[in-house]
Amino acid sequence: MESEQLETEGKASKWEQALQRLEITPEQRLVIENAKAKEADDWSLEEADLIMRVSREARRLQAVDEYKALPQDDREREHHRVWQLIGGYTAFIAAACLAVISSSKSEGSYAFAFSFWVVSLPLLCGAMLLDYHVRVRQARLNSKVRSFLLTVGVLSSHLGTVGMVSTYSWVAAVVYGLCPLLVGLYLHETIALGAEKLRGSLD
């Protein structure tokens, strides 16, 4: 019993040290403490890992607070950039659907591609409309529904394009299918490395 109490006190001490090393607001500290209470086992980490976990959560909360403080014009510009990116992609998928319809081909890979493209269109349009309300009207960065619509919409359209490319070359279809994973991994590592260098220059 005494050893368990000492272990608990040691974890609490590491927790306090981790919080003291970070510049966070009382509101952010309260949110992090609530998250710790809900996931007690996940927070039983070494001090370095604990500091990293708290730091990541604090940065997320800071980003949310900064976004809420932005004027509506700035939030509209953020939405406009998303609208241009997703809107251009949606227009491409719609044009591909029209091309399949005009070609009057309904067999094999054409039917496969057309089916996934048609499914993706309302999902992508819904994600764009929801992005306006989430970013501009509600001043929120995150939305699970928006993420779901966008993820399923992009995945469906991508599978459709892979099916269409396979009509001409299976090798090209496999390479094209893997490209988003490789590009996404490269972008993630590049952004993470840049953020790490930025934090190092600020320390």
From TrEMBL:
Keywords: Membrane, Transmembrane, Transmembrane helix. The chain crosses the membrane at residues 82-104, 110-133, 145-162, 168-187. This is Uncharacterized protein. It comes from Denitratisoma oestradiolicum.
